[in-house]
Structure formats: structure tokens, C-alpha cells
User: Fold this.
Amino acid sequence: MNFNKILIVLFFPVWVFFQIGEDSYSSEFRKIEHEITVGHPGNEDNGLEQSTLVEVRNKKGMAVEFYMNVESVICVKSVCKVVPVRIFWNNLGEYQKYELDKGVTLEKYEADLFEKQDYVKLQSILSDLDSPFKNVRIDEILTVADETHNDVDAVSGATALELDEEDTVPGAALTCFTLWHWAHGDIEIIIRNFTGKSLKKQDFKNYITSTKEKEQLFAIEQLLETKNYKKILVDAVINETSKNDNLLRSTFKYFNNASDKKYFQAIEKLFLKGNEKQKITALNSLLNSKRSVSSKYLDGLSKEVLSLKTYQEISIFLRLMKAKNSNSQEVIKHTIPLLGKDLLIARSVYWFLKDKNLSDEQQRKLALFYAENEDQL
Amino acid sequence: MKRRNFFKTGAKGALAAGLFPIMGDITAQTSSSSDKRLFNWNEGVEGIKGDPIRRKILNVDVAVIGGGMSGISAAVSAARNGAKVVLVQDRPVLGGNASSEMRVTVNGVQSLSNKHKVERETGIVEELLIENWHYNPQESYPVWDHVLYNYVVREKNLTLLLNTSAISVEMNDDKIKSVVCRQLTTETDFTINAAMFCDCSGDGFMAASAGAEFRMGREGKAEFNEKYAPDEPDGWVMGDCFMMITKDMGKPVPFYPPEYAIPFDAETAFKDKHRKVKQVKEGFWWVELSSDVDIIGERDEIRHRLMAHFYGVWDHIKNSGNFPEAENIALDWIGSIPGRRESRRFMGDYILKEGDLLGNTQFDDAIAFGGWSLDEHCPGGIENLKEPASYFHSRFKEVYQVPFRCLYSKNISNLLFAGRNVSVTHMALSSTRIIGTCSMMGQAAGTAAAMCAEKGVNPRGLYQNNMNELQEQLLRDDSYFPNRPANDPKDKAKKAATIFASSTASGDAKLLLDGVSRDEIEKIHHWQSEGLNEELQLEWNKPQKLTSVEMKFDTNLQRKMMMHKNPEKNKGQIIGIPPELIKNLSVEARVKGDWVEVGKVDYNKTRLVKVNFNEVKTTAVRVKLKETHGAESIKMFEIRCY
Assistant:
């Protein structure tokens, strides 16, 4: 079942101002209730569950926390007692903790109650992004092993899954599964988008320049989501991306959706300021872009060709010029010196220049290269 | 063109050794006569003999006896490696236990207690499973039979004999000189002369007839220090089984058991959790019968008793009133030939034992891997309800290795085997018997047989002198065994000055040259692009002469891929070609500065893609990876250039 498609329905957000002391929030915080539709792999009817997600904003109006009340067991409600569980996330959609109402307890199979250490282990499981429950199907939880490793029921406790003890609360795999998939998955992007909508320019700037990469990625993702291309933020994104390759993918997604002006400016800056990987990504973007690029713009880039260090950079640069600026004398002028570089680079320049209209001096240099490297062409 | 004339004059109808025509390299034609007169016994027409058996001689490099999944893998791999091969199958269909006649699931390594729960087998068995989803998404077993048939008959160098049983062997000292096989449908005896013989038949009549040493039964604890083995050795083997497929009639349907049905003792059987009826779609593996005397000699009696037990169980399900879910269910298919787990185990230069599997012994001659749990079925099967139906002694954390020395006879010098009859103990067989594992052994045995025939050596000599070459060929052909990276000196990709990709979302293009063609636990061996329409480029300092580029792509080896009798078991699988797999690609070589397309593949269906082309002298190769069967990026594990 594909849960990638998320339906988010915002029905009349309900603004609720906290009373002092209520739910441990101060009056500086306020709540917004969002009616959402979110996928849960335990729901075998249509994969979608309706629920109320509560957004908590600080006095500046920025979302700082989310929580949602869910049921402890999905699907097979007759197997275990179902109790309400409140799950908390931070504003990046990361699971933080769960809470039970006073006096409420979680149950295992055959009415065994959770022990104190089981609650601790559950928190550890829910905090684990790579928990085995991530890739488990509910039918695996509900079956025990036989020869074909996928038959019979789980109520005996011996699931086909055969989870290691540290990965589950024995006898409560269904609860772990249910809560893990509430805590993670589609809900994360729903929360991120709500947070994104609450951010102001300075909030974005703070996130982009954060020392935490995940916050930087969040900011770029939400800039794209909210189609925000304010200059100060664009500059911040370029500046930070030039220092961190891990932002490249998100950054290029962001700029691929920008206007021509912003796009070309961003590519030029990343090409000029960036490292090898960033230069390659920028050149590849230009090569594959359907936008119309001027010779002047490409001639400008060619001035930097001597600063390119690796064969791959030169290779993609020459390919770009051949495809979109093939007869530029400016490009020829800047690439001729590369005939003196290492063999792979020089050879690719030789092939690039071979059919070009060269001056006598340029032709002489080309002929010299050929004479010296004929057996390696 | 009239049929007989075609055989006389067609390009592929050339006479083989002047003895009989071969049709399309596929089927041995049993008659070369062009006499169309009415046969009339009373008139004594010339050509009608007192002895009705026709006799033909086949001269091949490799004879494979047994057309189950191991035999198919052996025959195809031997043929692909240049040997002239005959594949002899005693049934009208290929597939053995996996065929429509028995319908045993093509299981492989699964339920590992590790991050990789599933570690799917690659090579021929994977090609077959993917191809089946292409031709047979309806999961029809008769169609599956013909998927296998198509896969075999299109192979050059391979002659298939169906309905043909080995009946005798002729020896030359410790070598098999020939095997005589009778094709009942044509009343023809084929004398097959071969350099190498592979017995992949399970029971191993040919190998036994040749005098190959074998065991049948259970080793005692002491002999190999096997903790799960019985205290004393005995004759028990794991039993035979019937499968079934049912259909829902939409209304209550009665069931009347045959007179010979044996009443089912449900009370005893269901006392513990080992025997349960949790579905009514596909039979019950615990309806099983074995023997501690001679399971081969008793097979027909076992077949009958097993049918009687099967109908007894089904009578209980339908008529006891305890299974209301079966009220509308009717039997649609039931096997008539039991699926077989165990009989002869032929002895090789090494006997793989329980400790090797549990301790993951590392072998210099590894040629396959396994990882199904130690799943030893109960002695006596359904006639011994006091013991669990199976002892799931232990599952594995990681896959174990199978050594080549288990695949050839210790005393018959040109005999190999693959499948459930290889050189393992009873305890080890409880894991290695799984079809996916057996198929990998088949690929190894077939490849080795072709090498032996080509080099004029026996399997032991190959082990002693050419083991590295055998392993390299297997790895090149997409087999896998852990901790043995490929390092083929003929692979020119390894000599490239640089390799790079148009984008990288995870892994590294350089990892495509590291010799490991799948991700291992916590060890990445892949390159993955950010999107589609990506490129991969290799560049050499000096020009290279190339004729092929070979690549291995992602098919998600951590997801099951087999067909099921019960559609419920498809959950979590993809019904179709894996979406991760590359669909269209082209290969370019740079010739005098210009990129020239030298080959392309459209609608690819295999993990291993070999693009062959006329020799080209080049300093760079570029692969254009266009699209997958659904995934939004391209992931691959290896690239080689030859």
C-alpha cells in the first residue's frame, strides 16, 4: 500500500488560548487544532486515519510543538486493551515523547500490564528512526512462523517477525508497531509544513544559518514549499550551501523552481564559490536545464575554467559548452591552456577543440598535443 | 516447408554427429526416417523391429540429469559457459518440486535475525523469478512451467529431453562413460556420452548406479559433533508432502472423502502449536510422510498413504464443523506426485555439517550461500503426532557458505551434483534443501562442469588448480558468496583511470568496482543516482579494446520475490518486475572524440545486464541509464568491461 500521498485537510482551525497552568503551558502559548488525514500502515481499509493534530505556537507565533491523541492499538482491537496515548513532536516533526493519562496503563498480550522498564523501552523504540518496526507489515506482527515463515497467528506471542528482544516490548509488538507508525511517517511532513507556514523571515534566517544541518535542510525545504525567494534568504541559502555539500540536493530543488533571474544568479554563485561537487552540480544543472541560457553568461563562466581541478569538472564544463555555447571564441581562449594539464583533461580539451575554428597559434598547440599523445587518443 | 524436410535442410536441422537431427538446439529428434508408409506389423514392413525401442546416441560435454530448479540452473549455466549440454528430465514439465506437479514455493534465505531479514539469491534463480512475474503475474503454475521451458529451450548449446529417465550407466574405471536414458513418449533410449555428468535429480539414480558413495538417514550426534542431531544414527529422512490449491465457490459446497482416506487425529495433532490450520488455500506442510528404511523404495506406498492422510485432514476441515471458513471452499488442485525433501546424500570431498552453518565456516572454495533456518522435519511426519511437525532448531544471523567440495563425488571422478542430494549431513540439509539455495548450487555445478569439460580436468582437479577461476566466473554471472569479492584480472573497468556519475544520492560510483555486487550488513557497495536519465562514465589513460560492458543493477534483494499458491502471501512483495530495476539503457564508447552508441537494452528484465558489441577501441565508456521499472532513481552494484 502506498502511503506517500498524504491528504491534509485543514477544517476550520480552532484557536485555543491556554489558561495558566493548563497542560503545563503558560499563557504565552496558544494551540491550533488541525483535523488531518494521515496514512497509517496498520489501517488496512484505505490506509488513512482521521485525527486531530494540535499545534502549539509561542508568543511570536512560531510553531514550537505538536501533539496528537491516538489509540494504542490499531486494527485488531479485540486482541489488546486499547488506551489513548498522547504523542509529542517538535516543530521539525521529530518524535519527542508519549504520555498517558493518569491511571492509564498499557497492556501486553493476555492482559499482562506494562512494567516500568517496558515504558522506558517503548520510549526507546519510538525514538529509534531505524526501528525494525519501520519496515514491518502488520500481517507479520499478527503471524507466527511456520515452515513458510509467514503463517499462523501471533497471539501466541511468537511472531514471524522474530524481533530481537531489545527491539520490541515482548508481548506488545502490536502496540509498538501502532505507536511507531503514528510517531513517524507522513505525520512528519504534515508537521513540518505547518511549522513552515508559521515562520517569519528572521525565523527562516535563523534556521538556514543554524549549526544543525537538519534545521538548515528544513528551512530550505520550507522555503520551497512556501515559494519564498526573498533576497536575504536566497543569499543565506547560497552562502550556507557553498560550505556544506549535504545541502546541495535541497538547494538545487529550491532554485530549480525559482525565476530565471534567481536561478542563474544562484548557479553562478555556487559555481564560483563552491567546491568540486558544487561546481559539478551547478554545471550539470545548466546542462540539463530547459531554460534558455545566454552565450554571455556561459562565456562568463568559462573565465573560471582554469580553476577547475578535476577531470569530471572539465568534462562536464566542455559538454555544457559544446551543447549550449559551441562556437564561442571566449571559451576556446580559456580552454587552450588546459592542453597542458594531465592527460585525461588535456585529451578531452583536445577532442573539444579539434573541430573548432582556431587561430594559427591555437592550431599549433593542438597539433603539438596530438604529436605528443597520438597513441593515447 | 514440410516438417521432415525442414529437419533435413534447415540451418539448425544439421545432423548431429550424423545420428539424429537437433531442432533449434533444443529437442532431440528421435527419428531420422523419412519413410511415410503405413506401418503394418503383420506385413513385416521394413523398419519395424521386434524390439520397439529406438536407440540414439548423444555426444555432449555436460549431461545434466534432473530438470528441477537445480538442474535448470546447472544446465543453463553450463551452456552459457560454452559447453554442449543435454538436460534430462523425467517429467513432462520442468521445475521438479517447484513445478505445477508439486508446487513447492521457491523459498530462499529469509528470517535472518539481522537487519537483512531476506538475502535473496541472485543469478539464474533470480532471472527465473523476475521473468515469471513478467509472463505470469496471474501466478498460474502451468504458466510457470512454460516460463521455465522457454527459459531453457532458448539457450544455445542446450538440448532438452523431457519425459526421459536415466536407466543405466556405463563406467570406465571411476568415470561415467555414458548414461542411458529412456524417453517413454518416443520409446527411445538415448545413450548420452559426456565428459561431465551432473546429477541434479534429487534421488540420484544415475549417481547411485555409477557407484557414487551416498548416505540416507540421520547421522548421530557424535560423528560430526552436531548438537541437534539424534543421539544415535538412524534411517529417518525428512518426508514427502502434498500441496493443494482451493477455490471459493461462493456458496457452501460438500466434500466427500475417498474411501481410502485415513481419519485425522485432530485432537492429538492440534495439542501444541506446531500443527495448525490457519488457512484453507494451499495445503499444509505438516501433512508429510517419511521412512526410516528406504524412502525411495517405499515412495509409491508413501504416495498412497500420504494421499489418504491428506484427504483425512481435508475431511476433518470440511466436515468436523470446526472450520466454518472452509464451508464454501472446494479443492481445485491436489498434487499426485509428492514433493520430496530428502533421500540420498552423495558424499563429496567435504561434508557440510551443522557446525559449519552455525559457526559460518569460511571456505576457500565457497560457491553459494544459504540461510534458511535449521528446519528439521519430524521423523514419521503425520504418523508421528507426538513430536512437533518440525524442529526449528536455529535460525541464522548471517548467511553461511557452501563449498564446492560438496558438489562433486569423492569416488566417481567426473560426477557433480546439486540440490538436495549434495554432500551435507542430514542436519545441514534441513537448511540447504531450500530451492533458492539448491539453485545456486546448480549454477555452480553447471559452471564447474563446463570448465572441467573445457580444460579436460575433473572437478577435484578444478578445485585444486582452478578454484579462483570458478569463483570469478560465478561472481561474474551474478552468483554471490560472502567475503569473497570479485577480482577478475580480465575486467578492464578495474584499470580505468577514473569513474564518475552524473549525480550521487547515496554510495559512490567507485564502489561499482569493489567486487561486491550487493549491499551487505552495514557495508554499502552501491551507487545510486538522484534521478533518472543519469550517466556513468569510465575513462582510461590508454585506449582499450572492448567487446562488452556488464552491469548489475538493483532488484531489492531484501524483498521476497517468489510466486505463491496463496495470494495472501504476496503481501510485501511486488507483483511484477522489481520497480528498482533498470528498464532502458545504452552504452556509448568514445571513438576519436565522438561518443558512439555501441549497444542498448530496451525493456530489461535482469539484474545482470551484459551488453555485447563488436570490438571497439576506445578511451572512455559512458552508460546512459534512462529509466527504471518504476523507481525514481537508479541504483547499481557493479560495472565491468571486457
Residues 260-273 of chain A form the longest helix (14 residues). Confidence is low (pLDDT under 50) at residues 1-24, 145-160 of chain A.
